[in-house]
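Design job #97: recover the sequence.
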């Protein structure tokens, strides 16, 4: 290379002076800046198109919105078996008084001997001493006093013993129900904050209402256990409801006769998916 061209020559020309520039390395280095600019511009163009497509899709296509509704389920639907009143015991059989021997009284008549009938003959005097005199003849006990009816003794009836309450069982109805610390409003706030309302949308749920009923036990110390979904609308809603209730804080236990008891609670959670 001429000494006059050294100061104005490119550094690549100096490096590849006297070498084979047709090999390819020279062209790659020579066009590197141009190719770098093209790559950066292309990347920015693609990113811009994706961004514009996302923005336009929000305005053009319908979007799904989700909302969570928390509703308490009353345990009144757990109907207790109504005890039918026991029928009163039948009355004791009626005791008839014992029959007393009675001899019919025959009034005296003055008739001829051949006209006397056998039934009109007066009874012998000896028989009248041991019987009662009446208008009919009746066989029975020989006594001068009518025996009173015999009363049967029913005996002493003991009052039924009161059954002792089992406070270790699961109670269906209680005097004071289990409550979340802070009341129903605090429980609803906890669920709404911790539930993922986008679960049904993320799993492809169409616009609709998806209601999950969750059952769980609150023990004597207020701890939650046996959390289970009583139904499954699908799209991950039941799993999400069970997950949030399981990790919830302790409750105030239910009270029966002044004692903490085990009580089953039910909670309804509705995921609303609507088109925006």
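Job complete. Output follows.
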């Amino acid at each position: 290379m001429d000494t006059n061209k050294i100061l104005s020559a490119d550094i690549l020309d100096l490096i590849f002076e006297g070498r084979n520039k047709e090999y390819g390395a020279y062209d790659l280095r020579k066009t590197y800046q141009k190719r770098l600019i093209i790559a950066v511009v292309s990347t920015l163009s693609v990113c811009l198109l994706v961004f514009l497509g996302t923005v336009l899709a929000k305005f053009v296509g319908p979007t799904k919105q989700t909302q969570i509704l928390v509703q308490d389920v009353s345990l009144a639907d757990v109907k207790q078996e109504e005890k039918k009143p026991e029928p009163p015991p039948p009355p004791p059989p009626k005791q008839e008084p014992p029959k007393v021997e009675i001899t019919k009284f025959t009034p005296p008549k003055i008739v001829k001997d051949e006209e006397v009938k056998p039934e009109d003959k007066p009874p012998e005097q000896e028989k009248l001493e041991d019987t009662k005199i009446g208008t009919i003849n009746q066989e029975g006990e020989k006594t001068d006093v009518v025996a009173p009816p015999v009363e049967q003794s029913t005996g002493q009836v003991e009052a039924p013993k009161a059954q002792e309450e089992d406070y270790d069982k699961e109670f269906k109805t209680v005097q004071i129900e289990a409550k979340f610390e802070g009341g129903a409003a605090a429980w609803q706030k906890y669920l709404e904050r911790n539930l993922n309302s986008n679960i049904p949308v993320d799993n492809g749920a169409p616009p609709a209402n998806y209601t999950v009923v969750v059952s769980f036990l609150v023990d004597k110390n207020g701890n939650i256990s046996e959390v289970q979904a009583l139904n499954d609308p699908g799209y991950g809603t039941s799993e999400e409801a069970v997950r949030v209730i399981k990790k919830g804080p302790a409750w105030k236990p239910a009270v029966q006769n002044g004692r903490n008891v085990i009580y089953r609670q039910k909670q309804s959670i509705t995921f609303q998916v609507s088109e925006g």
